[in-house]
Amino acid sequence: MPAHFCVFALISVMFFATLTGHGLLILLILVDPLLHIPMYFFLWQLSLIDILFTLAIVPKMISDFLLHKTAISASGCGTQIFLGWALGGTECILLGLMSYD
Length: 101
Prior knowledge:
Blueprint (H helix, E strand, L loop, with lengths): L1 H30 L6 H29 L7 H27 L1
Helix pairs in contact: 1-2, 2-3
């Protein structure tokens, strides 16, 4: 049981650190007028995609971990796969656009 709690605590800390870091980055870019240039606009979009990617996967993983569920429904699996592909593809397109900036 202690190992179970340690894994849950580690995942939760990393989840909240990711959300906090990307949220603060977005807030900083939006608040500071000196950062209103294309590079930081793309960085803001990339942080938003990373937040959405994290929110699409981790909460379901944490809830299944706490409830000791080892299976996922077909619709839940399909949703996570779709979101992973869509957000991953969007991130690749955004990184390609950033390389031209």
